[in-house]
Write a structure and sequence with these properties.
Layout (H helix, E strand, L loop, with lengths): L2 E8 L4 H11 L6 E5 L5 E5 L6 E6 L6 H17 L4 E6 L18 H12 L3 E5 L14 E4 L2 H9 L6 E5 L5 H11 L3 E7 L8 E6 L6 E9 L3 H12 L4 E9 L5 H7 L4 E5 L13 E4 L2 H12 L11
Parallel strand pairs: 1-4, 4-5, 5-6, 6-7, 8-9, 8-11, 11-12, 12-13, 13-14
Antiparallel strand pairs: 2-3, 9-10
Length: 315
C-alpha cells in the first residue's frame, strides 16, 4: 500500500538545502546515515521504513563530484531495495551536464553516461535546476524537470537595480537564456564575445555587442567556477562605458581562490543560489545567496500531489 506522506531523503552533498526544503514543506527529513571508509568506499543506510513511499532524494553533485555522484547512485539503489514505491532524484547541480556533447575526437559524452547510471540504479524521475544544456533531458528515458532559477534571481536584481540597465550574456551560446532575464526585467540584451582556447577553465572576453554605456550591466550565466569569464567581461563592460557591473549565476561552483578573485574584481555584487552547498570559505560581502528551497519544495509538493508543475517554468 502506497504511503501518502512526503519522504525527503537528503544526501551529504546538500544538508542545508535539505533542511530549508523540509522547512518549506513543514516536514522532517528521513533518517539516514553515510559513512566513508578509510580506503574511500561509501556506505549509505536509510534508518527508517520507506516501503510503499514515494521518496524524494536530494543530492547535489558539487565537489567532491565523483563521491557525491556515487553516493547518489547508492541512495537510489538503497531506496529501491527498501521497496520504495518510487524514487525521484533531485539533483540541484548536475555537475557532469558540462559534458553534453562530443566536440572533439575520442572523448566521452559524460552527461549521457551519468544519465544511464541514474536510470540503471532505479530512479523514476529526475528534478534538476538550470541544466547546462537543455538536450540533456533527452539523454534520459524517464521524466526530467529542469527548473529555472531566473525568476528568483530576477526578483533579487529588481530590488538592486536603479536607473538604466542592460542584461549581458557572457557569450552567444547563452543569449537565448539571457533573453529570459531581459524579458522578465524589461531590459535590453547585450552579448560579450567569449573565447576559450582549451579545457583549463580559462576564458577571455573581447568585444561587447550592444549598448552598455551609462547603464548598470548585469551579467547572467548558469554557473561559474573560476569567475574568469565574469571578471573579464566586467572589465570590458566598464571599458565600454557601463556605470557598474552586477552578476547573477545559478550555480556558484567556486574553486579554491574564486572568492578572492571576485572580491578583488570590479564586479559590485554577485547573486547566486544554494544549489551548491555554501561553504564557510565562500563567504564574501559581494555575494548574495538566494535560496532555491521554495522552488524545489513546491516542485516536490506538486509532483507528490499529482499536480502540474508547468507554472514553475513560467518566465
Amino acid at each position: 500500500m502506497r504511503d501518502d506522506r512526503i519522504t525527503l531523503l537528503g544526501g551529504s552533498g546538500s544538508p542545508s538545502l535539505t533542511r530549508n526544503i523540509c522547512d518549506y514543506l513543514e516536514i522532517v527529513p528521513a533518517q539516514s546515515s553515510v559513512r566513508k571508509f578509510s580506503e574511500g568506499n561509501i556506505f549509505v543506510k536509510i534508518e527508517e521504513n520507506v516501503r510503499g513511499r514515494d521518496v524524494y532524494l536530494l543530492q547535489s553533485t558539487a565537489a567532491p563530484v565523483n563521491d557525491n555522484f556515487m553516493e547518489l547512485l547508492f541512495w537510489i539503489d538503497a531506496c529501491k531495495r527498501a521497496s520504495a514505491a518510487s524514487v525521484t532524484a533531485i539533483i540541484p547541480w548536475f555537475s557532469y551536464s558540462k559534458g553534453d556533447k562530443k566536440d572533439e575526437p575520442r572523448v566521452s559524452i559524460r552527461a549521457r553516461v551519468c544519465a544511464d547510471a541514474i536510470e540503471t540504479a532505479g530512479a523514476d524521475r529526475v528534478v534538476t535546476v538550470d541544466l547546462h544544456a537543455a538536450q540533456i533531458q533527452g539523454f534520459f528515458r524517464i521524466p526530467v524537470d529542469d527548473l529555472r532559477a531566473a525568476p528568483l534571481l530576477c526578483s533579487a536584481l529588481e530590488a538592486e537595480v536603479r536607473g538604466p540597465a542592460v542584461i549581458v550574456s557572457p557569450d552567444a551560446g547563452f543569449a537565448k537564456r539571457a533573453r529570459i532575464f531581459a524579458d522578465r526585467l524589461g531590459l535590453p540584451l547585450a552579448i560579450a564575445e567569449k573565447q576559450r582556447a582549451a579545457h583549463d577553465e580559462k576564458a577571455s572576453v573581447g568585444g561587447i555587442i550592444g549598448d552598455v554605456a551609462g547603464k548598470t550591466a548585469i551579467l547572467v550565466d548558469d554557473f561559474t567556477i573560476s569567475a574568469g569569464t565574469l571578471i573579464s567581461a566586467a572589465d570590458r563592460l566598464l571599458e565600454h562605458g557601463a556605470s557598474r557591473v552586477l552578476a547573477a549565476v545559478t550555480h556558484g561552483v567556486f574553486a579554491s581562490d574564486t572568492i578572492r578573485r571576485i572580491d578583488e574584481s570590479r564586479i559590485e555584487k554577485l547573486f547566486i543560489t544554494d544549489t551548491v552547498e555554501p561553504a564557510q570559505s565562500h563567504q564574501s560581502g559581494k555575494i548574495t545567496i538566494c535560496s532555491i528551497a521554495p522552488l524545489i519544495g513546491e516542485a516536490i509538493r506538486r509532483i507528490h500531489t499529482r499536480q502540474s508543475i508547468s507554472v514553475l517554468f513560467e518566465s
